[in-house]
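Researcher: Here's the sequence for the chain we discussed earlier.
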Amino acid sequence: MSSRINSNGIVLGIKDGLALIQPTNSKLPNRNCFVTGGPGSFKTQSFVVTNVLNERECSIVVTDPKGEVYEMTAKVKEAQGYEVHVINFMNMSVSDHYNPFDYVRKDREATTVANTMVAAKNDPKHKDIWYNAQLSLLKALILYSIYEMPIVKRNMSGILDFLQEFDPEQDESGVSGLDEQFLKLSKSHPARRAYELGFKKSQEATRASIIISLLTTIGDYVDQEVADFTSNSDFFLSDVGKRKIALYVIIPVMDDTWEGLINLFFSQMFQELYSLGAENNSKLPQPVIFLLDEFPNLGRFDNYEKFLATCRGYGIACCTIIQNITQLQEKYGREQAESILGNCGVKLCLGNVNDTTAKYFSELAGKTTVKVQTSSKSTSKSSKNDSSSSSQNFSYTGRNLINADEILTMDENESILIITGKYPIRLKKAKQFELFPDITDTYRCNQSCYEREIAREVLEFREEKRLNMRSIYILMKSKRNKKRMRKNCKK
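Model: Thanks. This is the structure I predict for it:
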């Protein structure tokens, strides 16, 4: 397996015939990269695929619109000793499974899951009574499933079955079948508290509307393919921080049906990696690099700039890859977009961008001083002869190191690199088919042929080793009762 690159790290481009690489132990404040390039800028071929092929030390998590990166590189990564996994939001039947409920261990994590799912299908800027009612009911249902249901039912399909089984309409006594299930729990039970402080307080006339609204929000999970995909997890999200894994997250380009679930997947992965790092002196056993192509399609992360500001300490590098800066501003707002950009030590413009992006890179590149020559000539006439004189003057003036129009008309093989604290560099793009000739053709595979391993040992391990939330609740309740008994004895 031949390559024209002999160093590990993030490949940024080619300068004077040599690859310019940011090493894993870079001295920059962070290893985060902001990469922008429009259609036809070789964004995938000169940055994403090149770096997936070249990386040999870090685990790799790459978003893969259409699945072409997987098809070109998966077999190469296996040959390099990587464990390969696929989460396919475009075709869930050829994907490893992912159950977001497996990462709900605390009440606030149930809130996060419920928030993400409801916000994905409703406008979070207009949190009216229907929005909040859905949110509180879904949170209560998630907590009920985690604490009370058998492990095979701790998923969205289990919640839908639960809603189908128990009638939300109240009887003559003012209690519904759904009420009864929650009222069987102790008053301090997290699921009952969430239920009584939310849905239980709604008027009878609005209950059916709330249920219908929630079913509309989570209705996509009725599909059997989706139900299977979210029924359990085939691997732990934190595994990418424990051993060398190449994880391909295949996302649809035009369909935003699963944007909320995709967003939740990455949010939970970020949190799982930070939790793993906290258990290991704030450092992951295995460093990780994220290559987040088509970043706006992943939804909006509330604290993404904070993640970028702190991830280096855990051994994480993150490459945020978009078509233009306007996309980032529309998703996050101008102020937060600036904060995200400020937390990327490397900024790479691959060209074919819009005016806003070109202007940003032009201003970021700074000014230079140019020498301007001016000349003048004068002629005088007299009765005897003509005479002339000329003079030359020099002055210095400032101009942009590179103008926005120069970026807009940049050659398709060139890119502009700006590193924090360094002068801008004009590079040649690091196209994978030039640096790794014939590799992607030799090792190409078909994404539809991916076979997931039914990792029952993962579920068994999770059932045996993970602290069961119901056991925790019973233990906490027992301790509270003992404290009350001791207080009563003292009295």
